[in-house]
Write a structure and sequence with these properties.
Strand content: 5-15%
CATH class: Alpha Beta
CATH architecture: 3-Layer(aba) Sandwich
Helix content: 40-55%
Largest sheet: 4 strands, parallel
Distance between the termini: 60 Å
Length: about 190
């Protein structure tokens, strides 16, 4: 059986790829992440995936272009719901390609992270699967999160420190209002 695996980054692909292959799936990857900010970050993630895919003999389809504006236009004034939009965008595009490629299933490495909203990914994926006629395969890959981290470290793989969008980048670096007085005093 053929499965199309949406891949957000190489470290998150390690465990799902291992499990899906052990279950007998013929896995093809799909790198589609137009939410990643800045562009250099997207390039670093793609470069890491290309190296890992070569190592694992994994065929991967890579996104064309970089539509940051499209992502921002769709989440502006809905920043608190940005993850749902992002999941829907990535999974819908994966489902469309899975249908055209005559895959038996599609799934996502988003299900690897303990930081993602699994219920939302599952509901969106299953709904899109019904709409596009390709079942969404839900697996809770979080049990392999630490294993994926350790393997990625042993491979000296690039490991990003935030989900990817400009909002998650801000959440990573910006300390918030509670530290503004300290920051101003330091100037």
């Amino acid at each position: 059986m053929k499965i199309l695996l949406h891949i957000c980054c190489a470290p998150c692909a390690i465990y799902p790829l291992k499990i899906l292959r052990s279950e007998g799936f013929e896995v093809m990857g799909f790198f589609y992440n137009r939410n990643i900010h800045p562009f250099q970050e997207c390039q670093r993630r793609e470069k890491a995936l290309r190296a890992y895919a070569e190592l694992e003999h994994l065929e991967v389809i890579y996104q064309n272009g970089y539509d940051m504006e499209g992502f921002l236009q769709n989440v502006v004034f809905r920043e608190k719901e940005r993850c749902s939009y992002c999941y829907h965008d990535r999974l819908k595009t994966t489902a469309v390609i899975a249908r055209h490629g005559k895959f038996d299933y599609f799934t996502s490495t988003l299900l690897q992270s303990k930081l993602q909203k699994h219920d939302a990914v599952r509901l969106i994926g299953e709904s899109l699967g019904k709409s596009y006629g390709v079942p969404f395969l839900y697996r809770d890959f979080r049990e392999g999160w630490k294993e994926g981290i350790e393997i990625s470290k042993s491979l000296n793989m690039y490991r990003q420190q935030y989900c990817g969008c400009i909002y998650s980048e801000k959440e990573r670096f910006y300390k918030g209002k509670e530290h503004e007085a300290e920051d101003i005093a330091a100037i």
